[in-house]
Design brief:
The structure is a homotetramer. By secondary structure, the first copy, chain A, is α+β, with helices and mostly antiparallel strands. Chain A folds into two domains: about 5-130, Alpha-Beta Plaits (2-Layer Sandwich); about 135-250, Alpha-Beta Plaits, CATH 3.30.70. Chain A is about 45% helix and about 20% strand. Chain A has eight helices and ten strands. Chain A has helices spanning about 15-20, 25-45, 70-80, 95-110, 145-150, 155-180, 200-215, 230-245, and strands spanning about 5-10, 50, 60, 85-95, 120-125, 135-145, 180-185, 190-195, 220-225, 250. In chain A, the strands form two sheets. Chain A has a five-stranded mixed sheet with strand order 2-3-1-4-5, sandwiched between helices. In chain A, strands 7-8-6-9-10 form a five-stranded mixed sheet. In chain A, α8 links the parallel β9 and β10. Chain A is globular, with a radius of gyration of 19 Å. At the C-D interface, α1, α2, α4, α6 and α8 of C face α1, α2, α4, α6 and α8 of D. Chains A, B, C, D: Belongs to the archaeal-type GTP cyclohydrolase family.
């Protein structure tokens, strides 16, 4: 059984801030939010977690191995270096979707995303070390078969993007509703999916579904570990096998 | 008539680099590519352009006002500070899609995105100052009506994201095929669209289409200017009017 | 004759901020201030200026080629992305020391560095384009002769640093008082000096003075240009000649 | 007794890289090295260590609490995101100067700072957890008495800097030779000193020495802890007492 620890990272009162006293330069907002994401990705990543930019104002992280004290330090460090602050909700469970749902609830219960008085709340609970296992996290790393040859070098950059985006949109919805999984676009033609206990057949089914629905061919490497990095790293290696052998699904 | 200058920013041979000699830590890749995007966004943005992260390995920028020398400096500066290099294609035209298509072609003609020998190519042409006008760029800034109340504070963070993502995916495809426009998700519930000469009715139609197709309610502010910043800033102010008055389409 | 445009960049009310409500984590302050410096260095640098970190809370830049509008944009962009704001003073003159002194005065006249009510002031004047010449800026780039062989590979890292620091401290004081020049340590064993119209003999004299005073052997390349980058780039090339030929002073 | 763990961070073959194939833009080098420092400061800092930029190409960190695995991860992460790599030497001891000296030796033994073949070496040893104590690190945080009133608001920015720099240069040399301590300028008018077991009298003596030698008045807060952050945070609080009560030396 998996036991995924999920953290919702929400910028406090971000929407109003971006237009107060008047709209701020878009390039500055883009720079600030992508650097904030990069910093969180480093902090969580060098503790073997994964952070996904998602909407940027709401980011989702897999934080197995991080304590509440780590979360508190992240909040403090961001508060010392950025013009915005973070609220964090943490929850765990066998279903990543349920864990995220619980993490969201504790933040929502603390106040609205646009509540001026809700600042730097930190809610929820982490998995204590003694209860962590090598099977806690399952990560699937998908990419598009020969994206460069089929799209990047052939279509204009936006139509390539539409193709990849469509494959992602379809996969994201399907994995969430059919397989209780959270899918995130991570750049290029890569999608990383945080999964419960899924089998090879589930991935075959998902790849088939996406190909039928939007005619985008995917391949996937799947890994398991005590942290997102361990599981994800195994998944990347498995995906290398797909690329080398032309297979569609490889479990580490 | 609009005359949009579009730049395709492509990281040279990025895919192979990310797995050579073996897969690199995902958190490092995420950090590196989002900081690279942030730097490009600052460089282009403080010359009044807009840069969109798109796929991160292929970014798209609206660069009216930037010269080829500016593009060259961006390439040199990135080459001095990152482990990867950039190839740039620049083109202009009354249709943003056609301009991007031309910008893509000049890069593709220089070599494959995964060609080891294609490094830091810079191709294409910019609009000379004497030919620039205050009408060159049209930007539409969309967001979701009451996203916080309807989604962020109600659904779990991933289902909110799916809703917003669906609205974006539908808008992106529709604006590209029905209106020759390039749509980019820029975080939160915001989508910025680079348009040719469109009228109020076109935006009404697009909003109606998205609502019918995926039941997501959008509002939009539209601006015009000699640069992406000028047009986009006017669009942001127009969107503030939508938010204040409850209207759906506002032209600056 | 040189005509150096100098900008004083002062973080508003920084000291009090670092200890309010209680002392902030040192590592966060170090990170924030060095990234702020890096951003200013990029903004000014990709307009061909030089920025020196100096004390970090007070930075000094050579900004020939930057307009007051550029300075305003820098202030706005920093204000949008950092928890602190900047006040800027700009002045010009044949003596870099006098120019900096004037730039400092206009900021001091606007209020104390620790005045809560003095925020984002922008004072002074720049050189209008028609008045700029190819001789406006003179830069001397010094380094220590065989620093790696004599110090870095021989002494412990701190004693190497003390040696280099002593050479810098002596050079800085001497160039300021004997030659109206501003000297800045820029990392490694490099010191960049912003000079008025100085001759080869002046540099010979300065090198002799430092060698006698603290027994540190320096070499220097000197360049001239319409901007700090043009002058500094010529100086770097001249210094390469010293390194290759074993000469002590080279004028581009 | 203190037991300081010191890490020497040396950029591999940096000097040659900065001028290959020809000198790189100074602003890019300044940006790259200050951001690299900022990243190391975050990585070490959020594990309760302190990093000092020192010469930028050779940085010194107090790393009590960091394991060799942490050091390896830092190397890997920097190698994935920067155009340069790091070599690290780690050593421990009751004298910070001796520890740094040992850390330097293991790096020097691995090869010259400008040896093309010495890349990412990691040498030395850390203190095992069971041997760590709450007294391992002693930090003294100095600043200049009323620097703003006496210098920043009175002298031009460079002459203020010269005053502060002179105080620092004198303190650095004295603390190293008289008290086996490592002193680092950290911005503004602040100097952080990594000390062995020193008493109140030692600090009184040092402050007196600097005042006599260069007429700069210092005050100092001193703290002790199991990590640089714990000791340094206590020192910052003690320095606040000096500021409030007008005392010169405060031990936490």
């Amino acid at each position: 059984m998996t036991n995924t620890q999920v953290t919702l990272v929400q910028i406090d009162n971000y929407g109003p801030w971006t237009v107060t006293p008047e709209p701020r330069r878009e390039a500055d907002l883009q720079t600030m939010q992508s650097r904030l994401y990069a910093d969180i990705s480093q902090f969580v990543g060098n503790r073997d977690g994964y952070t996904f930019f998602t909407r940027f104002d709401n980011m989702i992280a897999v934080t197995n191995g991080l304590t509440m004290a780590d979360h508190e330090l992240l909040q403090e460090s961001v508060g010392n270096r950025y013009p915005v602050t973070l609220s964090l909700g943490v929850a765990t469970g066998t279903s990543p979707v349920q864990a995220l749902s619980d993490a969201t609830t504790v933040v929502q219960d603390a106040g609205s995303a646009q509540d001026e008085d809700r600042r730097e709340c930190l809610e929820g609970r982490t998995i204590d070390d003694p209860h962590r296992t090598d099977d806690d996290v399952q990560i699937a790393h998908f990419d598009v078969v020969d994206a460069t040859g089929q799209y990047t070098d052939e279509l204009n950059a936006f139509d390539s993007f539409i193709q990849i985006e469509q494959g992602y949109a379809e996969l994201m919805r399907h994995m969430r509703h059919a397989h209780d999984s959270l899918s995130f676009f991570v750049g290029g033609d890569n999608v990383i999916v945080v999964c419960p206990d899924l089998e090879s057949d589930d991935y075959e089914e998902a790849i088939g579904h996406v190909e039928t629905a939007v005619d985008v061919e995917l391949q996937v490497g799947v890994g398991r570990g005590s942290s997102a990095h361990d599981a994800g790293f195994a998944a990347k290696h498995a995906l290398e096998v797909c690329r080398a052998d032309g297979t569609r699904v490889e479990l580490a």
